[in-house]
Amino acid sequence: MRDLTNPIDCILLGRKLAQGFIPHWDGLAANPETADDASRKFSSTPKIVFSRTLDTHEWQRNELAKGHLAATIRKLKDQPGGDIMVYGGGEFVSNLIREGLIDAYHFFINPSILGAGMPIFGGRETRLDLQLVYAKTFGMWDSGAVLPTEVSGMGGTMAPAKPKLFFIVKQTMKNILIIGGSSGIGSQLAEQLSIAGQHVWATYNQHQPGTHAPGIEFFKFNALEDALDVRLLPDVLDGLVYCPGSINLRPFARISPDDFSSDYQLNVLGAVKVLQAVLPKLKKSEQASVVFFSTVAVQLGLNFHSQVAASKGALEGLTRALAAELAPKIRVNCIAPSLTDTPLAEGLLNSPEKREANAQRHPLKKIGTPEDIAHMAAFLLSDSAAWMSGQILHVDGGMSSLKV
Known about the structure:
It contains eleven helices and 16 strands. By secondary structure, it is of the alpha/beta class. It folds into two domains: 2-170, Dihydrofolate Reductase, subunit A, CATH 3.40.430.10; 175-395, NAD(P)-binding Rossmann-like Domain (Rossmann fold, 3-Layer(aba) Sandwich). The strands form two sheets. Strands 1, 2, 3, 4, 5, 6, 7, 8 and 9 form a nine-stranded mixed sheet that branches. It has a seven-stranded parallel sheet with strand order 12-11-10-13-14-15-16, sandwiched between helices. Helix 7 (257-283) links the parallel strand 13 (239-242) and strand 14 (288-293). The chain is elongated. Mean pLDDT is 81; it is low at 138-172.
């Protein structure tokens, strides 16, 4: 990435991506714990944001452009200077390809990207003659191999005095709503989906969202008290993930009926309320997916887990019933993890002794991570899971099915 970004002295963005991209990289660069060469480069490089609706902005080292896109870019390319990067989506790059404005293409092919993608070379009457310059494979984001490929455009390279325009293409294919996306599994899932090019809307309640990837739009929502404002969401939703939950472990004799009711309100009725609110938007999708979260305790039967097992067991039943009712256009699945290292489980993992003891209870001898569960959720949202519905997926270190 450093070799790619060093020659640039200007970044072009659309309004929507700029609203997530600029604060994200500025936040990383300003934090000593997260600052690196890439974040400092992206933060310090002047940017031009194209928007028909914005009149003012608070971003530093940035300016708004409202003129004709192609004409503005041609004018920039005629000026001396470094390369120009456009950080945008498939539709944006398709338009500039048709205008003949791209000099080099850098494709980052990530196996975790969801869906079939958007063709960026479609709608052409003549063949675009490209030459492969290099290909390289390396690991990134713990999500699989990434293959960056640079392809030069027809007509060779430009004169050194003129900047070269190239794209980092972000595929933006699905609209996903995550209830509880500011911490734990929800936060990790939002990051994974955003990096993969998805449009993510995420809610927060007790945990304010910190520095996050561009492409995530947060809004406050209390699943117990608030009615979901669907006006904040796009007209079409391709996925819903309901993350709120609780872990209250006590002997049955010490749990009041109100305690059981409170868990049911959060784990079941909260999910019901949200799903009913967004169901019209999900029905407009070609293939929508709903993901709930249960617990390994529903299948296993564990001491002091009656409160959480009762409500999550109801959610598993709801999953199967809804999967039947909403088929074939909406898939409904549920993930049943074992103990996962999230803020919700902090009280069970707040000492080395507790962590080790809980790890040893699992056949794989380790505690689950938010990434482990988020990978499964991302899969269930993807087209790769298009033939799966009504399933309870046990991502639990082998605990529900192995005895070793």
